[in-house]
User: Fold this.
Amino acid sequence: SQLNLLSGIDMIPTTKMASKKLQINATDQVVLALKYNPALEQIRLGIAQANIGVLVAKNATLPRLDLVARAGTAGGTTSRQDTWNEMAGADNIQYSIGVQFEYPLGNRLAKSELRTSRLTRRQSIAALQATADDVAQVVRERVRAIESSQREIVARREAAAAYREELTGLEDMERIRAQLTPEFLNLKLITQQRVAAAEQKLVQAIYDYNTAIIELSRATGTVLETRRVQLAIPTASAK
Assistant:
């Protein structure tokens, strides 16, 4: 039920490749990719970090007002021992409270950092828009590849069925014919080769179809979710 990613376990697929037609809506897949694609998520985290940088830089340009409070003990005698005793007993406690106000004049460095942080945020937003366009284009290409593979499977399956039917007819003729001519044997051999080639192309079409499905899941960022796989790492425990 759970596999540790840090352990050496080989995952060997045993299920057959999918060949049934899938109903895929390109718009839904684009929306899914815009939500879960890891490249977009990374840029969104960068934008959030840039927003924090802008807030920090903006605060640095504002005037500063601090409330300062101090408390301490002091000794009021000339004897060192008496002074230590008074301090230890907190006989003379001194308090002070005040306000410190700082207003930067010009403040060119802080304003320059604010402009830089805002520029960084705009660049991150532009990168998000450009990457979103690229992801949407890739998703649509993956959907078209799936649809093309589906049509290819149908065509290859029909071709393989036609060649198998032709081979079956030749085998029926072989059983009823009294003598087999070289021409007939050559025709049977050629038909067998055609059947083998057609079945090989059918397997390749099914493989391309499954690959296209995985590539679409990769573009949408849902590879693990599609296969119902959850990541887990062992809990660290002190011994």
The helical segments are 26-36, 38-60, 80-88, 108-176, 182-220, 223-226. The mean pLDDT is 83.
